[in-house]
Specification:
The complex is a heterodimer of chains A (93) and B (162). Chain A contains five helices and no strands. Chain A is elongated. In chain B, α1 packs antiparallel against α2. The radius of gyration of chain B is 28 Å and the shape is elongated. By secondary structure, chain B is of the alpha+beta class. Classes of the chains: A mainly alpha (93), B alpha+beta (162). At the A-B interface, α3 and α5 of A face β2, β3 and β4 of B.
């Protein structure tokens, strides 16, 4: 018979740390690394903005793209401007 | 007098004539001059396939206008421009966006490629870019496609044996 061993708190923490260490390095923001790119964020520059959209036309989460908060806000504002002018889709059906 | 630069992108119907486009420019310039403002540029982007149909139009033509407005008058002038686009050019202008930009922003900007600029004829495109097309004349090693003939001859020799 196999006994289920409940891990102690200390062991659980060690396991958690090991799991975190096994992940790849943290994603880095493209705009903080390369500040010249900030000028590219513009509602007219549709080809650049398309990099931050999913296939269905949704805005890619900062959690996934690694963009910093302030640049994510700029991006989403410009994408919404482009959507209003039919340069970008609201959604691909 | 201190001025603030603005730009407005106009989305018009695809059937717009040159006269109508010129009339929009004239009306815009006149309205700006009345309010001691100045039209800087007025560009035609060309025809575009829209991301979604607007007023049941699949295509549209974009115009970008940039203008300087005195800081103390900007609210009134923008309001007047909005009413101009909404009322007078209701039939031609489908959508518009007026936004302020920094005064020292460069005159050159990036924009998507219009349908007029994209090449329609394949042969012409290949000639302009000095490309030979999809069918390769030579194999990847840079040799003439001679080995094919040898294979064919070998097949012929095997044929009578069957």
């Amino acid at each position: 018979m196999v006994k289920k061993i409940k891990l102690r708190m200390n062991d659980r923490l060690i396991k958690k740390r090991a799991r975190r260490a096994s992940f790849s390095a943290r994603k880095q923001c493209r705009f903080t690394e390369n500040p010249e790119l900030v000028g590219e964020i513009d509602y007219k520059n549709v080809d650049f903005l398309k990099q931050f959209l999913t296939e269905r036309g949704k805005i890619l989460a900062a959690r996934i793209s690694g963009t910093n908060c302030c640049y994510q806000r700029m991006l989403s504002r410009e994408i919404k401007k482009a959507r209003a002018l039919a340069l970008l889709p609201y959604s691909h059906s | 007098m201190q001025t603030q630069r603005y730009e407005s992108l106009l989305l018009t119907i695809p059937e717009i004539t040159n006269d109508e486009a010129a009339e929009i420019e004239r009306a815009l310039e006149k309205k700006l001059q009345e309010n001691s403002s100045k039209l800087v540029t007025y560009d035609r982007w060309g025809k575009f396939l829209l991301a979604y149909p607007v007023k049941s139009n699949e295509y549209g033509i974009y115009f970008l206008a940039r203008f300087d407005i005195p800081v103390d008058k900007n609210n009134e002038v923008v309001k007047e421009l909005k009413s101009l686009f909404n009322l007078k050019f209701n039939a031609t202008i489908m959508r518009y966006l007026i936004s302020n930009i920094p005064n020292d922003s460069p005159a050159v900007y990036k924009r998507p490629q219009s349908l007029d600029e994209t090449p329609k004829d394949v042969d012409q495109f290949l000639k302009e870019n000095k490309m030979s097309g999809f069918a390769p004349k030579r194999s990847f090693g840079g040799q003439e496609s001679a080995p094919k003939e040898e294979v064919l001859e070998a097949d012929k020799q095997e044929m009578p044996g069957e």
